[in-house]
Design goal:
By secondary structure, this protein is an all-alpha fold. Helix content is 85%, strand content 0%. It has 8 helices and no strands. It starts with 5 loop residues before the first helix and ends with a helix.
Length: 330
């Protein structure tokens, strides 16, 4: 049984804990942002805003760990390729001793042992890559689920906001009309031309003031509700944008992971002379993420040029992602 390095297990444990945090927070946000208590103001979402910031930070830490692990697989594979290129190298002294002793089999056995060691290293990389692959797929699935739950709530929030804007416009128009009536009436009261109607005008003035107070109160309520809905829509939009950003990053990492797995499989085949040990593990065992790859390589359907081309595209895409993140301060 191949034992993974403690550092890998430690990093994966951290990544899984962060994945759990982001999952819990994402769905908490989806639910909490959907509820607006009566009479609430924009501060009702202060807790949600803080949780979103926490989720963003957890996501960045999760991404950093998985980028580091994935890049590490590439470095390990590069080292294995370098070792394989010199696997049959022997010193002049070793060849001389073997020639005099007549034991050239010793050199052949040493070469086979070095190839077995390279193959074991590659299998370890693939086993670890399989774990990372599963974690990335799980997070990607979570992001899709949370985004799909958020999008209808954002649409509903924007619809409600449009309705409130219509109410605000109507209340603003009523306020203008009542204010105009009140100004006209107050002018009559200030310079009464009909003393007999003065009492009625004053009564009408009192009624219009009550009516305008009600309209102003309605405008204030609508403005407050609009502010709450605006904040709700912004936060829901931020959640969706973040989930989409994560989805794109995880896709890049999965592409990089697949490219490195292909390099491992190709070199394993060259080092061991067969992919048979991988077949069962790739069907339903610890290498299940790479089932199709192992099958394709076992059938000889992949060239090294194909692999290097895919690896180059994956590396360039990740580099662009890193540059964009650096420029944005993420």
């Amino acid at each position: 049984m191949i034992v993974r390095l403690p550092s890998f297990d430690s990093e994966i444990d951290k990544a899984r804990a962060l994945a759990g945090e982001t999952r819990e927070t994402a769905f908490w946000l989806v639910e909490s942002l959907d509820h607006i208590p009566d009479g609430a103001d924009a501060h009702v979402f202060d807790a949600a805003s803080a949780r979103l910031a926490e989720m963003r930070a957890s996501g960045q830490s999760f991404e950093a760990i998985l980028v580091s692990l994935t890049q590490g697989f590439g470095t390990g594979t590069d080292t294995a390729y370098a070792r394989f290129e010199t696997v049959e190298d022997t010193t002049r002294y070793q060849r001389l001793i073997a020639s005099f002793s007549g034991n050239k089999a010793t050199l052949r056995n040493a070469v086979r042992a070095r190839k077995r060691a390279i193959a074991e290293t590659l299998k370890t990389i693939l086993l670890e890559a399989n774990v990372v692959h599963a974690l990335l797929l799980s997070q990607k699935s979570m992001g899709v689920e949370a985004r799909q739950a958020s999008e209808p709530k954002l649409v509903a929030s924007m619809d409600r906001r449009r309705s409130v804007v219509s109410l605000m416009d109507e209340a603003r128009q009523r306020d203008k009309e009542v204010a105009a009536l009140l100004v006209n009436l107050q002018r009559k009261i200030a310079n009464p031309s009909d003393e007999a109607r003065l009492a009625q005008w004053k009564a009408d003035e009192s009624a219009l003031k009550v009516q305008r107070d009600a309209v102003l109160a309605e405008r204030e309520r609508s403005a407050r509700q609009h502010g709450v809905l605006d904040r709700q829509a912004v936060l829901l939009g931020d959640v969706i944008d973040l989930l989409n950003e994560w989805n794109a990053t995880y896709t890049l990492l999965l592409n990089k992971l697949i490219a490195e797995a292909e390099r491992c499989i190709q070199l394993y085949s060259a080092a061991s002379g067969t992919l048979e040990p991988f077949i069962d593990d790739a069907v339903s065992g610890p290498l299940s993420a790479f089932h199709e790859l192992v099958t394709l390589h076992a059938q000889g359907g992949v060239t090294m040029q194909d692999i290097e081309r895919r690896k180059k595209r994956a590396d360039e895409a990740l580099a662009r992602r890193g540059d964009a993140a650096s420029e944005s301060g993420v």
